[in-house]
Description:
The chain is α/β, with parallel strands linked by helices. The protein folds into two domains: 26-149, NAD(P)-binding Rossmann-like Domain (Rossmann fold); 152-309 and 329-357, Dihydrodipicolinate Reductase, domain 2 (2-Layer Sandwich). Helix content is 32%, strand content 23%. It has helices at 41-53, 66-76, 85-89, 106-115, 130-143, 157-167, 202-218, 311-324, 333-352; strands spanning 33-37, 57-62, 80-82, 96-99, 119-122, 147-149, 174-182, 222-230, 242-249, 254-260, 269-274, 277-282, 292-297, 300-303, 356-357. It has a nine-stranded mixed β-sheet, covered by helices on one side. It has a six-stranded parallel β-sheet with strand order 3-2-1-4-5-6, with helices on both faces. Helix 7 (202-218) packs across helix 9. The longest helix has 20 residues, at 333-352. The two termini are 34 Å apart.
Amino acid sequence: MALRRAKNSIHAGLAPARPRAPTVAIESLDGFGWGLIGASTIAREYMVDAIRRSGGRPLSVMSHDGARAAGFARDLDIPDSCSDLDALLADRRIGAVYISSTNTQHRHQVLAAAAAGKHVLCDKPLATRSTDALKMVRACEKAGVVLAVNHHLRSSPVHQTMQRMIAAGEIGAVRSLMIVHAGYLRPVLQSWRIKDAAEGGIYLDLSVHDIDLASFLLEQTPVTAVALGAGVALGSNTVHDHAMYALKMSGGTFVQVHESFVTPDVESQVVALGSEGALIAAGTLAQRSTGTLMRRVNGRNESIPLRANDLYADTVEQFLGAIAGTGSPRATGRDGLAALAGAEAVGKAASTGRAAAVKRHE
Ligand code: NDP
């Protein structure tokens, strides 16, 4: 496994958390032991494979339902399963956990993992409230374990290239960023995501990803949000499934975002409008490494060829690099916290009809 040095977190200036008391020796990260907290769709479809591709060994999976955990373990060839978080965390062969339970559970599971000295890759949103996310970040820092958030869109070669080109000034000063992230929510995912605004809805599901991507591309954080949102088909008055919003970022760039669970056949777009040109990414907001990148300068379009990768394996490899002390996660716990604070402001702006300030958490 090649571990690359990553400098692309918006918090890259902070020293990565160093493991003070790892539960396993980390002479070699090949064969590194993982515990899975959550027998989820994303773990089944992507993350078990991504962990294995990165040289790791998923050793045990935990579900609230022991029979489900056992079935998941059998299907994915994982040696152990359990229904007890403490039992999984007590396993000394496990050095890191991947958490992909429903969103309200992330908080107590991350806190328990940190207390047990396990490194944590938590799926997004890091928590359902930014005040909780701050506690989780601090607990991991105090325990000396790495906390990463699975904002996999940072791993896209298209987004990585956009970020480098923007940072190098190739389109001048970026005045605006436009993101269209829409589609139709798969029937298998139409459960907790559209039931309760405290756990689901478009802001905790898509906005955190898009705000994190904007922060990553621009190397700026969101400051103020204005928004429209509604439950037009799958959601309700309180659980929004369709939203448009605008953010003012810390460097003054405007970000405009369209998100929907209820509009099929939309190709995603990420468009950066600069003082000396534009970057246009199409079809990149996906779970697989897809899409194209075009640069437009002086009225001419130039296609930029890029090679696809495995977005989730890249996220896992960067996380392992942080554990080894050779890099930083693609998205740190503080990046996940910032994205969640931004999404909170968007949800507040949509429900009140007024501009909302993004909470700053130090
Ligand atoms: P799922 O609904 O598939 O799984 C979440 C939890 O729901 C599981 O951990 C499981 O609980 C329970 N569950 C799932 N299926 C069943 C079932 N058939 N019967 C009973 N319980 C079930 O969620 P997702 O995989 O879509 O999302 C999980 C997390 O990952 C979320 O935080 C989400 O936001 C995030 N996510 C991130 C993505 C990314 O690209 N970074 C993409 C998709 C999701 P238990 O484990 O206790 O059995």
